[in-house]
């Protein structure tokens, strides 16, 4: 069975690669649009205004031939007039996906309640799509948050797969929603200066994020990768998408369907990222790789320490301690790398006294957090430190054994991982 799955996966990847190779020139870009029927609902309660925004959004999509994928928050479909707005999206040949019923934040919601919201959104959308002989195929996590624990991540992913919904990631998360309120306020006040300033900042912010995430994706995979752009169905977008899409086309992006972009193995690459916030896919993958690199580095360091001990090289064994390292045992506290080295030399004066050491990692935890990016969005920081629990065993020359546990704390200093605290028991 495992071999069959591996072969199927390989065949799928080969097919996807061939499909990409045969695609028209230009970098494929999927435009996704969240919070349909109209984003920023509290700003747009007037139905004629909602209809105008919808018409303007659809007009610019048609002008640039963008096969966009929209995501519906079903609780925002208040009545038949909102249903009619969604019908316009379908009549334009665009696909609609599920964005839950109430736009729940998985990081602040228990799994059972969240899945009920996912299903309510799917069922509502399914009732609309059934009139057109379609079913919901795609899902978008509100706030891009997939859970703050691995259990939530895995449970929701399994439920989505079982329901036939594929979660669509975002590679370019540009915070376009943050420009809606200043735009609407300026437009209603007739403030042309504020409108011009908001338009300029909108274009600068989105272009910066497009360029930044494009470069990151290409760096991660060593080739030009497809991209998924996140936009919202709002009034500022209706006014600014034409200029944005024109610029994207001038930079070599080609508007593509969800099926084409999601066939790129880079976009389909799984991420094990969990956290209270939801960054874009490339940021998740880069963070996953950074965590794995840090874990590999300290486990390798542990192996090198054991090898140094077993060849009788205490200088090399202690070289991984920081200058101000603290070494804690039931006998007391030793401060500083040199003092730690002197302590070992006193306790193990000969190679025979040192015996043979093994160090086996039991658990590793990384220390990192969220930091604001230039646009003010929360993104995961690099791994600044790690704590490692290891089991140590010392086989002595006389055949006796000593063993115990050690808790090591590592910090990165000048590009190296060094032990800053060691509590051995």
Could you provide a short overview of the structure?
The chain has 425 residues and is an alpha/beta fold. Helices cover 46% and strands 23% of the residues. It has helices spanning 2-21, 47-63, 80-91, 111-129, 150-162, 180-189, 192-221, 235-250, 258-262, 265-268, 281-310, 314-318, 337-347, 351-354; strands spanning 27-36, 69-72, 95-98, 138-139, 166-167, 172-173, 227-232, 253-255, 321-329, 332-335, 356-367, 370-372, 378-380, 385-395, 401-413, 416-424.
Can you describe what's shown?
There is one protein chain. By secondary structure, the protein is α/β, with parallel strands linked by helices. It has 2 domains: 15-278, TIM Barrel, CATH 3.20.20; 287-424, Nuclear Transport Factor 2, Chain: A (Roll). Helices cover 46% and strands 23% of the residues. The protein contains 14 helices and 16 strands. The chain has helices spanning 2-21, 47-63, 80-91, 111-129, 150-162, 180-189, 192-221, 235-250, 258-262, 265-268, 281-310, 314-318, 337-347, 351-354; strands spanning 27-36, 69-72, 95-98, 138-139, 166-167, 172-173, 227-232, 253-255, 321-329, 332-335, 356-367, 370-372, 378-380, 385-395, 401-413, 416-424. Strands 1, 2, 3, 6, 7 and 8 form a 6-stranded parallel sheet that branches. Helix 2 packs parallel to helix 3 (80-91), helix 7 packs across helix 8 (235-250) and helix 7 packs across helix 11 (281-310). The radius of gyration is 27 Å and the shape is elongated. The two termini are 45 Å apart. The model is unreliable at 1-21 (pLDDT under 50).
């Amino acid at each position: 069975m495992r071999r069959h799955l591996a072969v199927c996966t390989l065949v799928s990847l080969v097919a996807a690669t061939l499909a990409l190779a045969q695609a028209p020139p230009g970098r494929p870009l999927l435009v996704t649009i969240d919070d349909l029927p109209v984003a920023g609902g509290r700003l747009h309660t007037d139905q004629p205004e909602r209809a105008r925004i919808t018409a303007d959004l659809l007009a610019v999509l048609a002008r640039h031939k963008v096969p966009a994928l929209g995501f519906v928050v079903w609780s925002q479909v208040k009545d038949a007039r909102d249903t009619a707005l969604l019908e316009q999206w379908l009549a334009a040949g665009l696909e609609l996906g599920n964005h839950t019923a109430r736009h729940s934040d998985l990081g602040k919601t228990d799994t059972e309640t969240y899945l009920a919201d996912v299903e309510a959104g799917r069922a509502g959308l399914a009732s609309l799509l059934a009139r057109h002989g379609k079913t919901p195929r795609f899902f978008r996590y509100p706030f891009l948050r997939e859970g703050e624990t691995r259990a939530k991540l895995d449970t929701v992913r399994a439920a989505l797969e079982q329901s036939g919904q594929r979660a669509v990631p975002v590679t370019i998360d540009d915070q376009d929603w943050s420009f809606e309120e200043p735009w609407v306020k300026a437009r209603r006040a007739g403030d042309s200066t504020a409108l011009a300033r908001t338009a300029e900042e909108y274009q600068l912010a989105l272009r910066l994020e497009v360029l930044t995430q494009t470069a990151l994706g290409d760096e991660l995979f060593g080739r030009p990768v497809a991209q998924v752009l996140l936009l919202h169905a709002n009034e500022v977008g209706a006014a600014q998408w034409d200029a944005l899409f024109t610029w994207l086309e001038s930079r070599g992006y080609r508007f593509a369907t969800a099926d084409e972009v999601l066939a790129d193995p880079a976009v389909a690459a799984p991420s094990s990222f969990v956290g209270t916030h939801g960054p874009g896919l490339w940021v998740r993958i880069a963070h996953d790789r950074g965590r794995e690199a840090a874990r590999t580095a300290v486990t390798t360091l542990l192996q090198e320490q054991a090898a140094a001990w077993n060849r009788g090289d205490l200088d090399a064994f202690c070289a991984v301690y920081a200058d101000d390292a603290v070494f804690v045992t039931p006998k007391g506290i030793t401060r500083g790398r040199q003092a730690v080295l002197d302590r070992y030399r006193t306790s193990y004066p000969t190679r025979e006294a040192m015996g043979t050491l093994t160090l086996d990692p039991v658990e590793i935890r990384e220390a990192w957090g969220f930091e604001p990016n230039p646009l003010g969005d929360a993104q995961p920081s690099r791994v600044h430190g790690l704590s490692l629990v290891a089991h140590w065993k010392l086989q002595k020359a006389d055949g006796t054994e000593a063993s115990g546990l050690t808790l090591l704390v590592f910090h990165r200093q000048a590009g190296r991982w060094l032990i800053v605290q060691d509590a051995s028991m």
